[in-house]
Design goal:
The complex is a heterodimer.
Chain A lengths: L3 H30 L16 H22 L8 H8 L1 E2 L5 E2 L7 H8 L6 H4 L9 H6 L3 H13 L15 H8 L1
Antiparallel strand pairs in A: 1-2
Chain B lengths: L1 H19 L4 H9 L13 E6 L9 H10 L14 E7 L6 E7 L7 H5 L5 E3 L5 E3 L9 H5 L6 E2 L18 E2 L5 H4 L6 H8 L5 E5 L6 H8 L15 E4 L2
Parallel strand pairs in B: 1-9
Antiparallel strand pairs in B: 1-8, 2-3, 4-5, 6-7
The chains are: A mainly alpha, B alpha+beta.
């Protein structure tokens, strides 16, 4: 004869096992779905060693934030704008994709880690077109135009983009400097 | 201490450059004056504006457009609530009907009421006299908007897009003229002053009120200027002539 107690015991443990299985599967499928995509930044290195950046990037940013806002310190190394310049991706047309878009550098990792940022409510998510680092690092559509335009200024005949409306006045300005 | 030495050094180099020659002197002065990126701002400077109302034309809004473009202050066609960092005022003398015009903006007070009332310390005065909002700690309560006698502050009511990288702005925080800190830190003058000089009538001058050799300090010494609501004793960094 089973005692009443042992029967409840069996039922209880079966229930717990089922619950644990259910929970694990939920957690696992969640993790697999949200696996972060981490595209490489531009250039060879980040502004600090990569393992340090993974762990401590927010410390650098928050320190830089106060140094800039209160003391007018404008160093580039830990500036948020510079992160964006190096970590922004371009689509096939050469247009920037905002760094906080779901599958982009900052956001995919944060989604995975359940971190929510408000930074990009205010901060630009793509570099300004006249950004200095742009010229060296990002051969985007406008840069291709710039290269073509430079050839034209130098009297070569390979220029095709002259009637391209995307060639903005400030880019022409940069070249004439 | 280093800030003091640097400021002195800058002034010395500036003097040397002025002596060095006229042809290339101008560029030398600009280079020598530049604050290095690592250097913190210091109370040895006090940035300010001198505005000559007699040169400011009633129909000219070059400074306003200059500011709106620089900071991308595009409106939502709702003048009551759209952000406005600088605006034009026309003043009519009731007796003579003479109309004078002037731009009104944050007056960068030495004793700013907006700073006094801020419950989080987000409203603050930088060491070099520029009054700012630290939007990272602003909770959007708008006490400062009410406290400002010049109605110089705006509240951002709506989500924004396409902000400039050097001028972050966002919903739920207060903002006002920053005297273009991002430009001042690179030894450029504010966008409104540049616009007034290139597209307007050259009514605005920017400079260091503490530097007796600066053009703005010399002008202020030579001719009378006024503070708007000087009865409040705020010691404004923005002064007006001919009003």
């Amino acid at each position: 004869m089973f005692s009443l107690q042992s029967i409840t015991g069996v039922i209880k443990s079966a229930f717990l096992t089922a619950l644990t299985l259910l929970l694990t599967s939920v957690i696992f499928s969640g993790a697999i779905a949200a696996e972060p995509v981490i595209p490489r930044g531009k250039g060879e290195f980040c502004v600090e060693p990569t393992d340090v950046m993974r762990k401590d990037h927010m410390k650098f940013l928050l320190h830089q934030r106060d140094a800039t806002v209160y003391d007018g310190v404008r160093t580039k190394k830990h500036s948020l704008n510079e992160c964006v310049t190096c970590h922004v991706q371009s689509n096939t047309q050469g247009d920037f994709i905002p760094v906080n878009a779901p599958d982009q550098f900052c956001e995919s990792c944060h989604t995975f880690a359940s971190v929510k940022l408000d930074c990009f409510e205010c901060h630009a998510t793509t570099p300004d077109s006249e950004h200095s680092a742009l010229r060296e690092l990002l051969p985007s559509k406008s840069m291709l135009n710039v290269m073509a335009f430079r050839q034209k200024l130098e009297g070569r005949s390979t220029y095709h983009a002259v009637d391209d409306p995307s060639l903005s006045e400030d880019l022409i300005g940069i070249l004439k400097e | 201490m280093t800030a003091e030495i640097n400021a002195k050094r800058r002034r010395l180099i500036k003097g040397a450059a002025a002596v060095a020659g006229l042809g290339s002197g101008l560029q030398l002065v600009e280079l020598a004056l530049a604050k290095s990126d690592e250097e913190a701002v210091s109370a040895l400077q006090r940035w300010g504006l001198l505005i000559d109302s007699s040169k400011c034309a009633t129909n000219c809004t070059a400074c306003v457009s200059g500011c709106n473009e620089e900071h991308n202050l595009e409106g939502f066609d709702r003048p009551e609530t759209d952000a406005q960092w600088i605006r034009k005022l026309d003043l009519t003398d009731q007796q003579t009907q003479h109309v004078s015009s002037l731009p009104m903006l944050c007056q960068h007070c030495e004793n700013p009421p907006c700073v006094d009332v801020c419950p989080t310390g987000a409203s603050f005065k930088r060491d070099d006299g520029i009054v700012l909002v630290d939007k990272h700690t602003c909770i959007g309560c708008r006490y400062c908007v009410i406290a400002c006698p010049y109605k110089a502050r705006s509240f951002v009511h709506e989500s924004l897009h396409n902000q400039k990288s050097y001028s972050p702005r966002g919903k739920g925080t207060v903002e006002s003229c920053t005297l273009c800190v991002h430009r001042v830190d690179k030894d450029l003058s504010p966008a409104c002053v540049e616009a007034c000089n290139t597209k307007g009538n050259g009514a605005m001058m920017f400079g260091d009120l503490n530097d007796a050799d600066s053009e703005i300090a010399k002008q202020m010494k030579a001719a009378p200027s006024r503070q708007v609501r000087e009865d409040l004793g705020l010691n404004t960094g923005v002064r007006y002539q001919n009003i």
